[in-house]
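haha ok so turns out i had the wrong file open the whole time. this is the CORRECT one, sorry everyone. sequence first:
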Amino acid sequence: MSGRLSGRSALVTGAAAGIGRAIAEAFAGEGADVALLDRDAERLAEAERGLAGSGRTILAIPCDLADADAARAAVAHAVQGLGKLDILVNNAGMLAPGDVLNLSLEDFDRVLAVNLRAPFVVGQAAARHMVERGLKGAIINMSSINAVLAIPAQLAYVTSKGGINQLTKTMALGLAPHGIRVNAIGPGSIMTDILKGVMDSEEARRSILARTPLGRIGEPAEVASVAVFLASDEASYMTGQTIYPDGGRLALNYTVPVG
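then structure:
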């Protein structure tokens, strides 16, 4: 199969649903072999079945990324199953509500373990493989507009995404001499399972759209298209950057009318 990622092998974390699954599907559609990683084994198997007819090698790896040893083993499993790893997407993430006065230390540690420590652990293991093999690979970390805009009741999540932006820059600088590019994607409001539940509330729907200049919620496929670009040779001179598919959210300093 020809495509912008033909001949390449990718690992996508948090690939059982939402943005991660959309990225895995887009990568396979562009000719890449793909390893899908997620802690939800049942939905992971469903995603694997959904890609079975893509004509590419598809590998499902159940893994809880909060376990650093399991995360490193998952990278080794992906390399063994695909033969190599040219592309990594650190997409897996989680939320734990709480502000500075009531967030528990356990929830803070749990969110940072998945959202920030795991991208370092998985990214380090993948980068070492790429350097050892002499591969000019691409690593993509999933950030958020909340790396820039804070939400008081999501202290741990916001903190983790701010860290992702800096992790991306430092990884990019450290790996540039090896020809490995590291970038991030910072989505705005995207129609994932979590947001679908929120949008059932008219008040929440109007609140979200009031701060979205394009006047609609983004789709996972729209984030996936950015990931394909960053993983491809089209982004060959980009590293250390965060791209924000956010419907104009970060440019907005007011609210817009909602129909």
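The longest helix spans residues 105-133.
again sry for the mixup
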